């Protein structure tokens, strides 16, 4: 049983009470013509399995002279996954990685004890407006891996398992599900899948994982007689058999979850850790900006600017 139950669970009606533990309505914020919807962490749920952060980016349309322009910034204690439906994004990090991610590809960046990266849509050859739509998630690392060396792995869409049939197409992004295992190494037991459902098609949730959730990216799905629209995340009770049926316009879903960790995590700005002291040390290191001998280094191909440490960052948050 998960240590991470809903703090104030919703009360679904009818048969749904047996399956839905928590319904999350993401909070939206406008980043200047570019909307982000954050489903995790939420007041009622910090994590689903090891997934501690879940952002929907867009949909948006970027003009050639505008778009995503996230300067170098630090992370500790987590791994980030960038997954795009539309557009492309330029990733550069302190390991020397200089990589573009395109729809269906996977960028998995493991921060461990510390990494710095930037995310931009700065393609000089882009002369037409570009549609942009994607999901970025963070995985909290197991406690014994929080101080591991940083790493980066890129996997092309063509390398990921793809299951087709009965009106659905499921690409396994990370981990194991439906008898398949994605090639990208993961720090703990998990699953993460992109499912496209035609109208009326049904898909069962994997039943071999402790914690399971689904995010409706587009369209709508029905579960136990209740319809869930785009922009909603459902977290299911452990062990229940759960099936989702697409509405008349079909649906695109992100299925996610896995084994829960040994306890909740502290989150402050871009840092995640089981230890408040680790976060304080990371804050001080970034504030000092000693890129030569300190624990953080700027990306070699993007080292002319960085995001300063917030003067008044968010309060420590630790779910329970």
Explain the overall architecture.
With 320 residues, this protein is mainly beta. Helix content is 4%, strand content 47%. The protein has one helix spanning 276-288, and strands spanning 20-24, 27-30, 35-40, 51-62, 69-75, 78-86, 89-93, 98-101, 106-110, 115-120, 130-140, 151-155, 162-165, 168-177, 180-181, 190-197, 202-204, 211-223, 226-229, 233-236, 243-258, 266-268, 271-273, 317-318. The strands form 4 sheets. Strands 1, 13, 14, 15, 16, 17, 18, 19, 20 and 21 form a 10-stranded antiparallel sheet that branches. A 7-stranded antiparallel sheet has the order 2-3-4-11-6-9-12, with no helix packed on it. The protein has a 4-stranded antiparallel sheet with strand order 5-10-7-8, with no helix packed on it. The relative contact order is 0.20.
Report the C-alpha radius of gyration, rounded. Answer: 19 Å
Query: Would you identify the regions where 5 or more consecutive residues have pLDDT less than 50?
Result: 1-18
Class from secondary-structure proportions: mainly beta
Number of helices: 1
The helix/strand series, from N terminus to C terminus, equals EEEEEEEEEEEEEEEEEEEEEEEHE
Question: How many beta-strand elements?
Answer: 24
Percent strand equals over 45%
Shape: globular
Distance between the termini: 14 Å
Quaternary state, please? Answer: single chain
Largest sheet: 10 strands, antiparallel
Classify the helix fraction into a percent range: under 10%
User: Average pLDDT value?
Assistant: 90
């Amino acid at each position: 049983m998960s240590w991470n139950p809903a703090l104030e669970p919703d009360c679904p009606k009818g048969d749904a009470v047996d399956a839905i533990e928590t319904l999350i309505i993401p909070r939206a914020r406008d980043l200047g013509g570019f909307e982000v919807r954050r489903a995790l962490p939420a007041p009622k749920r910090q994590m689903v399995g090891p997934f501690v952060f879940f952002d929907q980016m867009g949909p948006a349309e970027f003009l050639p002279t505008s778009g995503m322009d996230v300067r170098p910034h630090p992370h500790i204690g987590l791994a980030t996954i960038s997954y795009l439906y539309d557009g492309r994004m330029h990733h550069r990090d302190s390991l020397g990685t200089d990589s573009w991610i395109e729809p269906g590809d996977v960028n998995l960046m493991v921060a461990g004890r510390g990494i710095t990266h930037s995310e931009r849509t700065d393609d000089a050859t882009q002369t037409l407006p570009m549609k942009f739509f994607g999901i970025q998630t963070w995985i909290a690392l197991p406690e014994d891996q929080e101080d591991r060396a940083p790493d980066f792995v890129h996997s092309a869409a063509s390398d990921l398992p793809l299951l087709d049939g009965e009106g659905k197409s499921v690409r396994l992004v990370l981990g194991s599900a439906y008898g398949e295992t994605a090639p990208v190494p993961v720090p703990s037991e998990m699953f993460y899948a992109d499912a496209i459902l035609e109208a009326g098609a049904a898909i069962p949730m994997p039943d071999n994982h402790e914690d399971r959730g689904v995010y409706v990216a587009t369209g709508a799905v029905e579960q136990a007689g209740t319809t869930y629209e785009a922009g909603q995340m459902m977290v299911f009770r452990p062990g229940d058999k759960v099936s989702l049926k697409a509405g008349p316009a079909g649906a695109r879903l992100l299925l996610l979850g896995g084994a829960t960790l040994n306890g909740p995590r502290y989150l402050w700005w871009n840092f995640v850790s089981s230890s408040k002291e680790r976060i304080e040390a990371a804050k001080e290191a970034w504030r000092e900006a000693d890129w030569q001998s300190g624990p953080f280094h700027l990306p070699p191909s993007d080292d002319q600017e960085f995001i300063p440490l917030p003067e008044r960052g968010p309060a420590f948050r630790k779910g329970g």
